[in-house]
Amino acid sequence: MQSHQQPTAALSRAALSGDGRATAGAVTNVGRLAATVDRLREEIRRAQRAAEGRALIEVAKGILIERLQCGPTAAAQQLATLAEQADLTQLELAADIINQAARDRISQTAREFLDATRPGRGPREVTDVAVRLRSAEIGVLTATESQAVAQSLLEHALAPLGATGVAIWAAGSDASLTLVGHAGFSATEARRWHYVPPSVATPAQRALIERESVWTRALSELGLPSIGMREAPDGGRVAVPAGTGGRILGVLEIGWPAPLEPQPPQVVKQIEALADLCAHTLDLPADPGTPHGPGELADLADALPDAALVLTPHLDGDGHLADFRISHLNPRFVDPAGRPAGAVSGALMLEAYPLAADEGGLFSVIERVHATGEPFIADQMTITALVDQVPLDNIATVSVTRHGERVLLIWRLQDESARLASLLQHAQRLGRIGAFEENMLTREITWSRQLYTLHGLEPSQPPIPLERLADSAHPDDADAIGRFLRKLLHHRLPDSTTFRLQRPDGIARHIRVVADPVLAPDGKLLAIRGAFQDISSQHWTEVALAATRDQLAHSEQQAAERNRLALQLQRAIMPPTRGPMEAFDLNIAVRYRPAEHEHLVGGDWYDAAILPSKQILLSVGDVAGHGIEAATGMVVLRNALRGLAATGASPSQMLGWLNLVAHHLTENVTATAICALYDPETRVLRWARAGHLPPILIRRDEAAELDLIGGILLGAVSDADYAEGRVQLEQDDIILMYTDGLIERRDRDLHHSQEQLLRTATWHTSTLEHRLDHLLTHSNSDTDDDTCLVGIQLR
């Protein structure tokens, strides 16, 4: 770009001179210069690819020389002959020969790619993959700086996969990241992302800490910043840890210009192989002053005041981390199992401390620090050692840091007294307790740290003597403190008291103080020992509970009074027992069973009355809820229905008007109801329902519900229409109307309870009243709700 910008600037200057011919010539020269630069760059790339290809071929020739025991000329002839017979180029055959001889990660990737594509693709594509990977390897190994490494990876191996950007990060000893190579990203982005502190979360930093690859469909979906995010915020991104021997040396990050869909396993393997290739070429410079050699790290360990171990990675036959060898112990080393230093030095970590292999234990911590470089510090960590096959737990302050390839482990074991002191301090902090001791001979006062906190004082300030305790208390508590001190100091007996502490910062706390005198054998007072406890939370809780108890008692009294009023109101209108009625050719019987508990007094009602038109009004209803509101709502609806019946309206019309009363003239009352009119002349029963259970007809010892007709419950909407049903009664027919308290159960649905009621209703009895009593006796309801039951029988 600079080659284009500079001639363009010159062209502009020529244009300002006013010479038109010079300007045209400059334009022509700029185009020629740009074409020359592009041609030279392409020639350089072709020459580089040719050199890398020749390097692959030379490596393959070396393998043939070693295997065939021949000279370079014979090996070259053999390579050309084999390539012609296999219908491959010498470069493709060279990649195959290297793969067979190397048996490394790149070879494995090529074989897996061949296995995955064998059914539908030919070997040519597999060979192309091997050539790309081997070419990238040659470019990396021959590169003199990390920038060339990134460019070689992008050009040879990643560009064919659609990638447009590569970043190589070197991991620092503190889990920081340094950009050591990049390709496909602008120079401005590279400068902005030259260094990533350990506290900044990025895809590469996440891959380093979690020690696993991070695949992201789009960088914007991950929510983490990274290099190139301005240029392609929705591009795919992959970050793969690059390490050897269990130690992560850096991270290979690859970017795509568009969202990245899930990749096949063979592509994933290719990218992991490239990360391993980067790990072998990363050369991390030592931080100034950081000991990397074993001698320097041992000298550092020897200068530490705590026990220190220098751990060296121990690799298995495949080059993977298997354990850590304890290569050095400093003079202050103390073994948790009590063994001498000679029994531990030189041993493997898991041999010396096998219980450290527990998940999340010490070995996992060391492995993580060695892999990522992120230091680890813990104030209290359990180190378990085996003593005669018995696990012994030790609490220690632990520090683990990485120095080059080695790890420095520092621990400070807590003795029993330190552990008990720590536990005591923790208990005092949780209980908001502070301990004290006052020497009565020397007048020396000792306070625990928590006691300074309770009094709102700094540890540098002098503690308050017991004799001056009243100076820091509320004046009203002076008498209580005086009695406490008199019993403690004069009578020399243990005592306790509570008072209100007024701290210097203006905060008042409720404190309980408990103290014991320490006496000499001759009875002389030597010291006072005790503790202060902040009971402010307990005090205010007790105050709140007392207020709540008073409020609950008042509420219970009000509720009981309301329930008694509701019960009296209900019984005044509908007494539990009522004699039978005879009207024209009908026998009418009613039953009302109130709830057993007063607080469950409900709004069930029934009514049976002879109207001026000589028709008989029959009704049952159930107001939603319990208590005084339900009872008063029941009175309003029952009386309103009686008044509406005097108008001569039909049952459906009466329910429509009653719905207006419930919706507009009551306080949010809703109810279900049945309204029926019996005409003695025609023996026809007309009825309507508002969300209520339908009546039951018993005819010739068979019981069935009347056909269900429409009708919404009262008070739900302002305007509602109600359907009307008609029943032509025959001699000895019985009609039953009831509220749901007769059949409602918690353990079954209403349908099963209705079927049970129909079977019970067919039980033969001598009178209608006996039938109603039988239904109440054998009712299987368990909700303790009010129950109304109305029955009529045609003679």
UniProtKB/TrEMBL annotation:
Keywords: Hydrolase. Residues 37-98 form the ANTAR domain. Signal peptide: none annotated. PANTHER family: STAGE II SPORULATION PROTEIN E (PTHR43156:SF2), STAGE II SPORULATION PROTEIN E-RELATED (PTHR43156). CDD domains: PAS. One of its GO terms (molecular function) is RNA binding. InterPro entries: ANTAR, Bact_Sigma-Reg, PAC, PAS, PAS-assoc_C, PAS-like_dom_sf, PAS_fold_3, PPM-type-like_dom_sf. Residues 495-547 form the PAC domain. This is PAS domain-containing protein. The keyword Hydrolase applies. It comes from the Bacteria.
